[in-house]
Every structure is written in structure tokens, then in C-alpha cells.
TrEMBL record:
Binding site for S-adenosyl-L-methionine: 80
Name of the protein: tRNA (cytidine(56)-2'-O)-methyltransferase
Keywords: Cytoplasm, Methyltransferase, S-adenosyl-L-methionine, Transferase, tRNA processing
Source organism (scientific name): Methanothermobacter tenebrarum
Predominant location category: cytoplasm
């Protein structure tokens, strides 16, 4: 079981990227995102709406006090940071234990103590990019590609993969849309 902690959400600036953190987490096999920073009920509603339509299970919640989350966390804590150990050198060790994993991604400057609290500081390349790309690559390597075949439960809407155009089943009705 993998949960994601998104630190330092800023309602005005980060609504889009934090939404994408949640969507990437859901699509690539994490079970939950906990958002810390500023409370943003609209964002949570939007993500829940995606889960409602495209299937679950997937949970998104808000918790102001990230220190409490880390204190109470029983499994490993993995902090994604460009300053960490390259993922390709450490992923095998991370996968050794079957404990739950909490993946921390930052937004603005991450508090220094996170680097100490984390069991693993992991870099997805040592180049700067984003929390969405780092999370997606981490989950892809963690699940070894099996997440690509994940079936979501009770979807109202789903895509029929197609070479051309857009084929969607919406509420049991097949709809062929041109792209
Ligand atoms: N100036 C910020 C800092 O260094 O704290 C940069 C934040 S970056 C835009 C937002 C988040 O993306 C980081 O906190 C980290 O979780 C993730 N991230 C960015 N590049 C990464 C990398 N190369 N490897 C792992 N995570 C990365």
C-alpha cells in the first residue's frame, strides 16, 4: 500500500499541480494522497469527482499537521528530492520490506527535517523537474510496470483503447467521438 503526502499546498498557486499529483498517484497505483499546507476543499471535491467517474478505490484528504502524520506513520517514509540517492540505486532496497510506504513530495521549499525523518531520500535524476513527474516515475519503478494494467473498480466511464479517434463507454453507452 502506497500513500502520498503532498507538502506545502498553496491554494492559489498549486491547485493545478496538486490536482495532477493526485491524478498521477491514482492512475499509477497509489491508494491515497494526503494534502498538507493550505486547505483546499474544491480540489478534494474535483479529485473525488474523477474517482467517482473513472473508478477507485482512491482516497484524498487534507491534514494540516504533517508532523503528526509522520510521527504516527508505521511503515517507511520515502522523500522524493533531486538531492537524494538515484532511484535506480535504491529501489531494490526500498522494495525489500512489505511495510506500507509514505511518499513525500514537496512544492515550495521542503523543511530540512524531512530529509532526516525520511528513511530514504530518493532522486529521480539529480535534475530539477516536478513532483508529478518524480511521483509517476517512482510509482512506475516501484510497481515494475504492473500499475499500467490496473483495473479500477466501479467506473462510470471508461475508454476503449483505439488506434484512431476516441471511444468512450459512459454509463454503459458507447460513444464514438472523433478526436
Ligand atoms: N525549489 C524547490 C526545492 O528544492 O525545495 C523545488 C521544489 S520542486 C518544484 C517540487 C518537488 O518536486 C520537490 O519537493 C520534489 O518532491 C519533486 N522533485 C523535483 N525534482 C525532483 C527530482 N529530480 N527527484 C525527485 N523529486 C523531485
Amino acid at each position: 500500500m502506497i500513500k502520498v503526502l503532498r507538502l506545502g499546498h498553496r491554494k492559489a498557486r498549486d491547485a493545478r499541480i496538486t490536482t495532477h499529483v493526485c491524478l498521477a498517484a491514482r492512475a499509477f497505483g497509489a491508494s491515497e494522497v494526503i494534502i498538507s499546507g493550505e486547505q483546499d476543499d474544491k480540489l478534494i471535491e474535483n479529485v473525488n469527482d474523477v474517482t467517482e467517474r473513472w473508478g477507485g478505490p482512491f482516497k484524498v484528504s487534507y491534514q494540516k499537521d504533517w508532523k503528526k502524520i509522520l510521527k504516527e506513520w508505521k511503515g517507511e517514509i520515502i522523500h522524493l528530492t533531486m538531492y537524494g540517492i538515484p532511484i535506480q540505486d535504491i529501489i531494490k532496497k526500498i522494495k525489500e520490506s512489505k511495510n506500507e510506504k509514505l511518499i513525500i513530495v514537496g512544492g515550495p521549499r521542503v523543511p530540512g527535517e524531512i530529509f532526516k525523518i525520511a528513511d530514504f531520500n530518493v532522486a529521480v535524476t539529480n535534475q530539477p523537474h516536478s513532483e508529478v513527474s518524480a511521483l509517476a516515475v517512482f510509482l512506475h519503478m516501484f510497481f515494475e510496470g504492473k500499475e499500467l494494467e490496473k483495473e479500477f473498480e466501479n467506473p462510470k466511464i471508461r475508454i476503449i483503447p483505439s488506434k484512431e479517434g476516441k471511444k468512450i463507454v459512459d454509463g454503459g453507452v458507447k460513444d464514438d467521438k472523433a478526436s
